[in-house]
């Protein structure tokens, strides 16, 4: 299976204009069984409530029937189960679509095939949900653009409800640039049109791709590759008088410009470009920010206290200076993200405070470790330490309410923490350490 996908990737790389005419046969029994084994068994179930363990009881028969339906073109995905999760930093809810387990198997295989084709087409400005690239890589490249290039203005942009507004007709038109297999495209279309089940009611979907589905990230990258990445590279940069760069992670992106006029022209053109593809710019979240080595001087000239900041991938970026007085960009955890995480932590401890303390402390230690793995980057340790302190205060408050009388004062609680210590933050990611795979971008 790896050899077949590798062959497709080589063809896609050697022939950028080649259209693939035979892909549906790759949804075979062997590959679908492998996808079944690779899927996690502890995820939420879809509308049919079937888990991985239940599907595995008659795995061979289920996979065989699935392959036959795919060959007969009678396979139809079930509607996704729509659930809502909290949106960090606000009272709004984010919709998620949870596919049924069998649909997850097919989606995983389709995503592998699409990745093998499009990974060679995607531009260096794209980092989201791509093999060998992650959020930290995007932050590292953005840091180089702001510190080492001529960046004086940043356009912090946001697309309003991107996953809910992807146009199906445009989506299929983009896929047809590289794929000319009607059977394969038909399956993708059926996933897009499968609809949702919400509170027992079926809802049709004439636009959008379910955020939460295994196929959604690659489809989002394909859509924005044509809508945004190619347009910025081929049209916007050539029209700019100065330097211009973009870093995109899924539907979040930041653009850096040397000149204010270039940034303003891009801001005006962006709304029209998105509207053409039935997307909308969130104007309240999209703004032009003076940012860079001259931002501090310009603020003083205008009577402002300090340069503006912007948030990207959970970090607030701000202008600062090194110990030698040279310009530097620093990052700290976004206040909105930290507050949302602390609220979630408080709710969990409040609900589980009467459980065994060893269970509670092990759970909090693992939670902190996961938090550190992402947020413990260069210049952010102090802010992460504040988060750890607030977690400690939450534990002190709610462990004291395990009974009617207080279990701890601070001295006893500190002794308790010696027995069940919480991990301390240390730098996990050096923002200035570029991997060799990223150096060629610059």
TrEMBL record:
Superkingdom of origin organism: Bacteria
Residue spans crossing the bilayer: none
Domain Reverse transcriptase positions: 66-317
PROSITE patterns: RT_POL
Keyword Nucleotidyltransferase: yes
Matches recorded under SUPFAM superfamilies: DNA/RNA polymerases
Record-listed E.C. numbers: 2.7.7.49
GO molecular function: RNA-directed DNA polymerase activity
Record's keyword terms, sorted: Nucleotidyltransferase, RNA-directed DNA polymerase, Transferase
Pfam families xref list: GIIM, RVT_1
Name assigned to this protein: Group II intron reverse transcriptase/maturase
Species annotation: Tigheibacillus jepli
Species lineage: Bacteria, Bacillati, Bacillota, Bacilli, Bacillales
């Amino acid at each position: 299976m790896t050899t077949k996908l590798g062959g497709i990737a080589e063809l896609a790389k050697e022939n950028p204009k080649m259209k693939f005419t035979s892909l549906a046969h790759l949804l075979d029994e062997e590959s679908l069984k492998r996808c079944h084994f690779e899927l996690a068994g502890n995820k939420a179930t879809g509308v049919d409530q079937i888990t991985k363990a239940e599907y595995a009881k008659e795995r061979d028969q289920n996979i065989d029937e699935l392959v036959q339906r795919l060959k007969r073109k009678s396979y139809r995905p079930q509607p996704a189960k729509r659930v809502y999760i909290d949106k960090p930093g606000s009272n709004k809810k984010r919709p998620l679509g949870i596919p049924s387990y069998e649909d997850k198997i097919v989606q995983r295989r389709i995503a592998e095939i699409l990745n093998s084709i499009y990974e060679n087409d995607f531009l260096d400005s794209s980092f989201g949900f791509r093999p060998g690239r992650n959020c930290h890589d995007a932050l590292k490249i953005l840091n180089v653009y702001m510190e080492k290039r001529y960046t004086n203005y940043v356009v912090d942009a946001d697309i309003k409800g991107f996953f809910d507004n992807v146009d199906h007709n445009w989506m299929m038109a983009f896929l047809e640039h590289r794929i000319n297999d009607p059977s394969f495209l038909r399956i993708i279309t059926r996933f897009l049109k499968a609809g949702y089940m919400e509170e027992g009611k079926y809802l049709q979907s004439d636009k959008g791709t379910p955020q939460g589905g295994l196929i959604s990230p690659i489809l989002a990258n394909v859509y924005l590759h044509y809508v945004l990445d190619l347009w910025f590279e081929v049209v916007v940069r050539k029209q700019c008088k100065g330097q211009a760069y973009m870093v995109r992670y899924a539907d979040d992106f930041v653009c850096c410009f040397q000149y204010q006029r270039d940034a303003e022209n891009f801001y005006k053109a962006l709304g029209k470009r998105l509207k053409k593809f039935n997307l909308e710019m969130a104007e309240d979240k999209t703004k032009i920010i003076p940012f860079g080595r001259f931002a501090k001087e310009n603020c003083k000239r205008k009577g402002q206290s300090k340069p503006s900041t912007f948030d990207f991938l959970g970090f607030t970026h701000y202008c600062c200076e090194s110990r030698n007085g040279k310009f530097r960009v620093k990052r700290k955890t976004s206040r909105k993200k930290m507050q949302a995480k602390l609220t979630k932590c408080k709710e969990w401890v409040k609900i589980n405070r009467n459980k065994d303390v060893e269970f509670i402390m092990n759970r909090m230690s693992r939670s902190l470790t996961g938090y550190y793995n992402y947020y413990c980057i260069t210049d952010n340790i102090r802010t992460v330490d504040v988060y750890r302190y607030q977690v400690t205060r939450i534990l002190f408050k709610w462990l004291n309410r395990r009974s009617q009388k207080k279990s701890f004062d601070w001295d006893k609680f500190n002794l308790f923490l010696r027995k069940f210590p919480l991990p301390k933050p240390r730098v996990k990611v050096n923002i200035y350490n570029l991997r060799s795979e990223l150096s060629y971008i610059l």
